[in-house]
Amino acid sequence: MDIVLIPGFWLDGDSWSTVTPPLAVAGHRVHPLTLPGKEAEAIAHAGIGLRTHIDAVVVTIDELAAAGSVPVALVGHSGGAAIAWGAADARPDLVGRLVFVDAIPSGEGSVVNDELPVEGDSVPLPAWHVFEAADLADLDDERRAQFAAIAVPEPAGVARDPLHLTNEARFRIPVTIIACEFPREMVEGSIASGAAWAGELARIESLEIVELPTGHWPQLTRPVDLGESILAAVGPA
């Protein structure tokens, strides 16, 4: 299967490099994306928004479809989950599995995070004190330095633009959530109680939640385990 890997905020396609080996060994073809405005040489983020990133993923799906490589699996980490969900909404018949890494899909009109500090048209990686303690679990000084070294500013529009969804066929796509900083029981309880933030989850026809206890960036703190968790979700090649 072709697996499209969508990074979260401040990360590019290379951030998946220590996650992909189990997938490749199993025979899957992996496509780690570096989204528009997150290239190393990118300096201008004006005009780049959430739809820009969704469209970039849709282009990749269409290219794989043209080559006969569908359905594909989409893996979205953190803010990349909204991008994966939007792409699945656009091409539900071409997506065979969705994997959300430490993220929950949100509904129509939601934004990824409009509280992050913005500088011009960009959201630089904030100081560590901005994050909650659960985010930073296992992210020791060495890993924090690694993250800071590879971090690229996020286009502000990606964080602040509303997500627009139109195709309820997205709910038929099987979904796996790899929960790192929140327990499975919390998500299941929120679905059962009708919590508003779990509204999209409640409508997904096939949903599994697996736990990978660590902080918000398992590709830095537990990359091999993350790769094996993704492999378990998508199944054999």
UniProtKB/TrEMBL annotation:
Span of domain AB hydrolase-1: 3-224
InterPro entries: AB_hydrolase_1, AB_hydrolase_fold, Sec-Metab_Biosynth_Hydrolase
Pfam family, one: Abhydrolase_6
GO MF, one example: catalytic activity
SUPFAM superfamilies: alpha/beta-Hydrolases
Protein name, per record: Pimeloyl-ACP methyl ester carboxylesterase
